Amino acid sequence: MAAEPSKYAKYLPVTTRDVRWGIYCSTVGFTKMPTAPRYPLDPSAHPPKYLFKWEMGRIFDEYALIYITRGQGTFKTEGERTWRVGAGCIFMLFPDVWHWYMPDRDTGWDEYWVGFKGEYPARLVENGFFSPDTPVMEIGLHDSILELYTEIFDCARIEAPGCQQMLGSLITHLLAHVATLTQQHSPDSAGERLVQRAKFLLADNVATHLDIGWLSRTLGLGYSRFRQIFKKYTGLSPYHYFLDLKISRAKELLHQGQFSVKEIAYMLSFDDPYYFSHLFKKKTGHPPSEWH
Predict the structure, then answer these.
(1) Would you kindly state where each structural domain of the chain is located, as residue ranges?
(2) Is the peptide bond before 40 cis (omega within 30 degrees of 0)?
């Protein structure tokens, strides 16, 4: 796994037409920190509106959903109410409500965020679907949540016409998914919980040379036993499931039309673009150069 922090952040323009849509995106991004000697990593990278003395906390005029997928830390909100948050927690920031959060120095954390505003999220809060009284939600590690964040990042990067309407749709989907997960019970069996975590880790590392042996050790199992359980619940070995994730991500990148086949192969950690093209055609029936 990478030892250095990695990050991405973008702040989006908003028009009057976007506001009329009812939900629009202000900012998106992620930060992955193996440790956190200081937080945030680079305050100067953010617009003036977001600058503040971190130790004092802050008050926004927008909503945000922050998903923690690794590590642990602390979240505080009005009245000095304090929560310990870690992998599988998602917490919500509310307009005009003071908040403060920070990863532990020795563990760091991986965080994904999206900021948004509009009449629609305000109506959800008014109707009791989300509340400043319960900002922290234990939803677990879900590859479907990670996929939504990835789609949001992709849409924000391209910033095509109608981008804010597409982002509003994706954020609405994310809110619905989070609301549903907070009402659901956790998986019934240890096997289901193990596979759920494994699927998340595979999705989170889709652009890497993931060592499946490392994954099984991380989950506390020998590879043979891990493979057996994973295949029982998914019908695929972890390796072939991981390849399918890479091909699925390649389809998304090809559809965007911003990258060449060779660039996508390297982005997904295929050392040989010809092998990538061969595998893509084997999985889809079409070479990547013909995929639209």
Answers:
(1) 6-183, 190-290
(2) yes
pLDDT, tens digit, 9 for 90 and up, residues 138-197: 999 999 999 999 999 999 999 989 999 999 999 999 999 999 998 775 556 788 889 989
d(CA 94, CA 220): 38
Q: Fold for domain 6-183?
A: Jelly Rolls (2.60.120)
286 burial type by CB count under 10 A (0-12 exposed, 13-18 middle, 19+ buried): exposed
d(CA 156, CA 166): 9
Residue bearing tokens 């880790």: 201
The CATH code of domain 190-290 reads 1.10.10.60
Are the C-beta atoms of 33 and 70 separated by less than 8 Å? no
List pLDDT tens digits, range 235-264.
899 999 999 999 999 999 998 888 999 999
- Phi and psi at 173, nearest 5°, equal -60, -45
What does pTM read for this prediction?
Answer: 0.81
